[in-house]
Every structure is written in C-alpha cells, then in structure tokens.
Recover the amino acids of this structure.
C-alpha cells in the first residue's frame, strides 16, 4: 500500500519508507508457504488446489517474491526508480496469483 500510493502520486516519495515496505514484503513472502501448509477447505477460499498439487512451484514463486523484494530494498532512491520496481513486483505477484488464486 505504501509503495502503491507513492507510485500513483497519492503520497510523496520517501525512499526510507519504500525500503521499509520492501523489507516487510520480503519478510511476509517468506511466510507464504507456512500459511498454505494445510490445504484450504473453505469453499470461499480463493486458493486453488493447484497450490498443493504443485507445491514446489508454489513455494518457488513465494521465494522469488522474497528474493526480489529483498534485493530491491535499499535500491529505490528516487521516484523514477519506483515504477520499474513496482512492475517487477506486480509481475511476481501476478505470476503466483495467476497460477494459484481463483479469478
């Protein structure tokens, strides 16, 4: 949310806040597999069964997001740096959601 509002020009650019947000995203990404260790049985869940039938791919996607956001932390120094980073993050998120989340 912090990064998105800056990218859309709804908040002033703050490199320190971006770094903090990226570090938090990396930490959250590291916890994704643990959140899905138990197969979802709630019919309202957006989690697709493909998570558990393609567990290695699912956990690899989470690791990719963790690595990406960790690597970006501290590198976004100007608002011009933000757009390319947001696109990279969006691509990583979209890849996982495209494969493992109900539309």
């Amino acid at each position: 949310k912090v990064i998105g509002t800056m990218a859309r020009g709804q908040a002033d650019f703050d490199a320190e806040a971006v770094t903090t947000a990226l570090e938090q995203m990396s930490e959250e990404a590291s916890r994704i597999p643990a959140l899905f260790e138990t197969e979802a049985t709630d019919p309202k869940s957006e989690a697709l069964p493909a998570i558990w039938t393609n567990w290695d791919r699912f956990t690899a996607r989470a690791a990719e997001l963790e690595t990406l956001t960790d690597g970006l932390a501290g590198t976004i120094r100007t608002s011009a740096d933000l757009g390319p980073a947001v696109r990279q993050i969006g691509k990583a998120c979209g890849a996982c959601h495209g494969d493992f989340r109900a539309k």
